[in-house]
């Protein structure tokens, strides 16, 4: 990123557009480029750097973001009225840009204060969970969690709380479907998640997602800290709540024995998300988060890039960093699946940019994706996972998820993410219990309006007050502090109980 004028940014020498750093009224002179704004250009939006003929490919970040739908004069506003999505050939060049990872020496590796679980994984929080196998048991799960009152929890100060997680599916679907498999993966991933010291699974009794099926298919075994129950077998709501509370009471003493200890940063599995994006996402918060990811990977940790529809058109930037042909092919296959999937639904991937994205200056999915991939840093792509699969590789990996924020985060948490970093330009508010979620604001104006929801402001990069590297180091330090127990803004506000959203794929019967 190069700053050629305090009013605009030229991101790459080959770019056809400039990015406005503030609202530019019509007639504003951009002296460094020998042109003037022909119309009002909102902050974050694009100004034509040169005359562009109709049908011409337009570049930003040095990459194609679409094609002109009409002739565009230098100094004009470039947006949805004159720029549209258009397919173009991408050279995947799998593995052509891999490079050795520079790891820090073991004795210099950063640490955090976390919980070491019996299976060797680390937790950043210490919750008990009550998980619904089907929407029909979701309210009862909440009744159980609510019935474990603050007086009882006060006896176990090391336990962060009891979390009830319901969802909108679990029945009316084929047990042989992809969506059913995704649901069971999510439930199993949360049941095993290190941030849950113990979990109670609650079913209704007659649903498609039978507890017996879930336990067998996902190789789950009951024990003192993983229990199951059905409402119909228990005798109804009141009896289920009473029994459920007794089970939680049995789990509390063991959960309360957990103690934080110094653990290496290599235990961290960081989920990466961007939502409510704007044009600043790809200029500030996403590349700063990418710099933090590079630091985490150098310390032996793992970062999960996700949201397949939001790398579309930029996937070649990842395949070129794939450590093997197999890894690169996996990502290419997921892209093809999404093209076919959206076509069957009568849609295409360019419908992804939301009205808020477009108001913030993003025009096409190609433009959005180029900013989104920056979250993954500059290192190698070491593995590609399907939705909610357990993540075991170290380094930067990719998980196939939708772009819908909480569906994506649910998959990453099920995969083992024990912390989430969520960049936002418009101002997204949400949480992701049991995993803490940090909000990274892309611009100072939004951060000023929504400081109670934002954990860090990356706007100083655009304001010329900080570099991407400076902000990346600040994010990395905040990750370590948060993993050590400091509450995030979303945790302090109480978010996270309603954001368990498994990916629903297929027919509802």
Topology:
Layout: E1 2-5, E2 8-10, E3 17-20, E4 29-30, E5 35-36, E6 46-48, E7 57-60, E8 63-68, E9 77-78, E10 83-84, E11 111-116, E12 122-123, E13 127-132, H1 138-147, H2 150-153, E14 161-165, H3 178-191, E15 196-203, H4 211-217, E16 226-230, H5 231-234, H6 237-255, E17 261-264, E18 269-274, H7 285-298, E19 302-305, H8 315-319, H9 325-344, H10 355-359, H11 365-372, E20 381-385, E21 395-399, H12 405-414, E22 419-424, E23 437-441, H13 444-449, E24 456-457, H14 468-483, H15 489-493
Parallel strand pairs: 13-14, 13-15, 15-16, 18-19, 18-22, 19-21, 20-21, 22-23, 23-24
Antiparallel strand pairs: 1-2, 2-3, 3-6, 4-5, 6-9, 7-8, 8-10, 11-12, 11-17
Helix pairs in contact: 1-6, 3-12, 7-14
Shape: globular
Integer-rounded radius of gyration: 24 Å
N-end to C-end Cα span:
50 Å
Q: Which parts are unreliable, with pLDDT below 50 for 5 consecutive residues or more? A: 1-5
What class, by secondary structure content? alpha/beta
**Count of discrete structural domains:** 3
Give helix % range: 25-40%
Number of helical runs? 15
Short description:
The protein has helices spanning about 140-145, 150-155, 180-190, 210-215, 230-235, 235-255, 285-300, 315-320, 325-345, 355-360, 365-370, 405-415, 445-450, 470-485, 490-495; strands spanning about 1-5, 10, 15-20, 30, 35, 45-50, 55-60, 65-70, 75-80, 85, 110-115, 120-125, 125-130, 160-165, 195-205, 225-230, 260-265, 270-275, 300-305, 380-385, 395-400, 420-425, 435-440, 455.
């Amino acid at each position: 990123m190069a700053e050629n004028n305090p009013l605009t940014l030229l991101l790459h020498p080959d770019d056809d557009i400039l990015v406005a750093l503030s609202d530019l009224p019509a007639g504003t002179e951009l002296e460094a480029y020998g042109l003037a704004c022909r119309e009002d250009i909102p902050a974050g939006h694009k100004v034509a750097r040169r005359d562009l003929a109709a049908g011409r490919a337009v570049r930003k970040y040095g990459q194609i973001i679409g094609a002109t739908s009409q002739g565009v004069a230098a100094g004009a506003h470039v947006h949805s009225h004159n720029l549209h999505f258009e397919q173009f050939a991408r050279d995947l060049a799998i593995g052509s840009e891999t490079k050795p990872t520079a790891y820090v020496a073991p004795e210099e590796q950063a640490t955090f204060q976390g919980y070491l679980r019996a299976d060797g994984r680390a937790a950043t929080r210490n919750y008990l969970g009550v998980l619904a196998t089907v929407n029909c048991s979701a309210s009862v799960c909440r009744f159980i969690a609510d019935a474990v009152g603050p007086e009882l929890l006060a006896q176990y100060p090391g336990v962060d709380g009891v979390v009830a997680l319901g969802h909108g599916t679990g029945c009316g679907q084929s047990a042989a479907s992809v969506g059913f498999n995704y649901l069971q993966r999510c439930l199993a991933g949360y049941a095993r998640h290190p941030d849950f010291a113990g979990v109670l699974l609650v079913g209704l009794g007659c649903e498609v997602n039978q507890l017996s099926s879930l336990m067998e298919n996902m190789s789950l075994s009951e024990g003192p800290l993983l229990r199951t129950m059905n409402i119909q077998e228990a005798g109804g709501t009141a009896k289920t709540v009473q029994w459920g509370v007794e089970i939680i009471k049995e789990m509390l003493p063991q959960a309360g024995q957990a103690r934080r200890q110094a653990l290496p940063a290599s235990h961290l599995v960081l989920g990466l998300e961007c939502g409510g994006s704007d044009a600043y996402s790809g200029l500030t918060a996403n590349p700063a988060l990418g710099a933090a990811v590079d630091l985490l990977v150098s310390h032996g940790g793992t970062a999960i890039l996700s949201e397949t529809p939001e790398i579309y058109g930029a996937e070649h930037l990842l395949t070129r960093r794939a450590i093997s042909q197999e890894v690169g092919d996996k990502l290419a296959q997921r892209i093809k699946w999404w093209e076919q999937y959206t076509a069957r639904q009568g849609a295409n991937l360019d419908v992804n940019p939301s009205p808020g994205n477009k108001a913030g200056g993003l025009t096409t999915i190609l433009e959005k994706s180029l900013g989104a991939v920056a979250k993954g840093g500059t290192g190698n792509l070491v593995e590609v996972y399907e939705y909610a699969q357990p993540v075991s590789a170290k380094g930067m990996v990719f998980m196939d998820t939708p772009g819908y924020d909480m569906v994506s985060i649910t998959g990453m948490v099920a995969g083992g993410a024990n912390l989430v970093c969520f960049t936002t330009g418009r101002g997204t508010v949400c949480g992701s219990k049991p995993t803490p979620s940090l909000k990274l604001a892309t611009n100072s104006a939004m951060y000023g309006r929504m400081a109670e929801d934002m954990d860090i402001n990356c706007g100083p990069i655009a304001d010329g007050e900080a570099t991407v590297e400076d902000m990346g180091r600040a994010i990395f330090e905040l990750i370590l502090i948060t993993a050590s127990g400091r509450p995030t803004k979303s945790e302090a506000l109480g978010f996270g109980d309603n954001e368990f959203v498994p990916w629903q794929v297929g027919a509802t019967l």
